[in-house]
């Protein structure tokens, strides 16, 4: 007789999802080769939404009166605790997060903490070693690798689960998300400024959603494959200026993976490529955000010298990379030295 090891035939995985869910870990023990498990209903849903968003672009250039763009982000607050926020700001961010349909904050932040802890390994939900498309969006279309589930159990999210606003959002997500992401963005433009139903749905709801989803995906795909590594050349996360411009400062990813607690997610506080920093600073000025954490210049310099790929900007006067010609030709005004 054959052994009594439970094996699930590959074709069954697509038909009997519940069987695969319960037995996947057991099966993996006996089958070292990981078999990708595509969730076809998600594939069809995302296919439809992408096609519908293309129609939204067409309408935007032909008959739209107004394109509404909403950007939401809870990355720096909840995933990394890089600053603290009073309840009005937390409420605002939860509402904006719900409009983005990228899972509840608790689920998003848990995935993101796993990503940081096990970057670009099988335990990373959007492991960039599995290809550009997988890290960009493919990971949303198939079941998580067993290693993600296994390592995810050890990730502490007790702080997130103790926040009543986040618990409420997760509990009622199936109701709140369609309302905030699709229904209200369609109804509000029609009622408030007489937009057509077609424009409102395809542009303000679907296109806005798909656009933001793809922009977010670029952080996991492009910023994990394209760019230099001035802070740590041994990781895949890279500095990608294009992504930083498009995602409000989230593209300085080599720095962010080295110093994930820095609320600026970048070394410099330059607002032009980091609108999210300006957003947090604004709320800090009115007292809604506080305890903004940053990294000292000295700590950054030590890390650059230790693990950087040599592409870091000049530190300033006296930097080892400064040429003699630059030193000779410098201009000093209000010189205090007396000749
Ligand atoms: Zn990353
Ligand atoms: Zn992060």
From TrEMBL:
Instruction: Give a GO biological-process term.
Output: unsaturated fatty acid biosynthetic process
Q: Which InterPro entries match?
A: Acyl-CoA_DS, FA_desaturase_dom
GO function term, MF aspect, one: iron ion binding
Q: Give TM segment ranges.
A: 34-51, 172-193, 199-219
Report the main location listed first in the record: membrane
Gene Ontology terms: cellular component:
endoplasmic reticulum membrane
Q: Name one Pfam family in it.
A: FA_desaturase
Q: What is the recorded membrane topology of this protein?
A: Multi-pass membrane protein
- Source organism, top-level taxon: Eukaryota
- According to the entry, every stretch annotated as the Fatty acid desaturase domain falls at 68-260
Cofactor names from the entry are: Fe(2+)
* Compartment(s) where it occurs, according to its Swiss-Prot or TrEMBL record: Membrane
Which keywords label this protein? Answer: Fatty acid biosynthesis, Fatty acid metabolism, Iron, Lipid biosynthesis, Lipid metabolism, Membrane, Oxidoreductase, Transmembrane, Transmembrane helix
Taking the record's annotation, the residue ranges forming a coiled coil are none
Family per record: Belongs to the fatty acid desaturase type 1 family.
Can you quote the domain comment?
Answer: The histidine box domains are involved in binding the catalytic metal ions.
Protein name, please?
Answer: Acyl-CoA Delta(11) desaturase
User: Which species is this UniProt entry from?
Assistant: Harpegnathos saltator
């Amino acid at each position: 007789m054959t052994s009594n090891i439970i094996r699930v035939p590959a074709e069954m995985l697509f038909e009997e999802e519940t069987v695969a869910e319960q037995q996947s870990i057991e099966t993996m023990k006996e089958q070292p080769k990981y078999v990708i498990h595509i969730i076809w209903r998600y594939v069809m849903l995302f296919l439809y939404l992408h096609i519908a968003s293309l129609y939204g672009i067409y309408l935007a250039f032909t008959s739209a009166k107004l394109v509404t763009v909403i950007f939401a982000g809870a990355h720096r607050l909840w995933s990394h605790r890089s600053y603290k926020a009073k309840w009005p700001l937390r409420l605002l961010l939860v509402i904006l997060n719900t409009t983005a349909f990228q899972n509840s904050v608790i689920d998003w932040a848990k995935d993101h903490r796993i990503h940081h802890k096990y970057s670009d390994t099988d335990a990373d939900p959007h492991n960039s070693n599995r290809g550009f498309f997988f890290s960009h969006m493919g990971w949303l279309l198939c079941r998580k690798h067993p290693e993600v589930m296994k390592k995810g159990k050890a990730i502490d999210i007790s702080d997130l689960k103790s926040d009543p606003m986040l618990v409420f959002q997760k509990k009622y997500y199936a109701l709140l998300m369609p309302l905030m992401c699709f229904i209200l963005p369609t109804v509000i433009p029609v009622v408030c400024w007489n937009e057509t139903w077609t424009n409102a749905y395809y542009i303000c709801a679907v296109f806005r959603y798909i656009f933001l989803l793809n922009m977010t995906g670029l952080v996991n795909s492009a910023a994990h494959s394209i760019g230099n590594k001035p802070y740590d050349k041994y990781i895949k996360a890279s500095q990608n200026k294009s992504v930083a411009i498009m995602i409000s400062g989230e593209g300085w990813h080599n720095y962010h993976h080295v110093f994930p607690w820095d609320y600026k997610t970048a070394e410099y506080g330059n607002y032009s490529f980091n609108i999210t920093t300006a957003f947090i600073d604004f709320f800090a000025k009115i007292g809604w955000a506080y305890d903004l954490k940053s990294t000292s210049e000295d700590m950054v310099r030590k890390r650059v010298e230790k693990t950087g790929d040599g592409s870091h900007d000049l530190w300033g006067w006296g930097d080892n990379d400064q040429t003699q010609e630059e030193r000779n030709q410098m201009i000093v005004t209000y010189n205090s030295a007396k000749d």
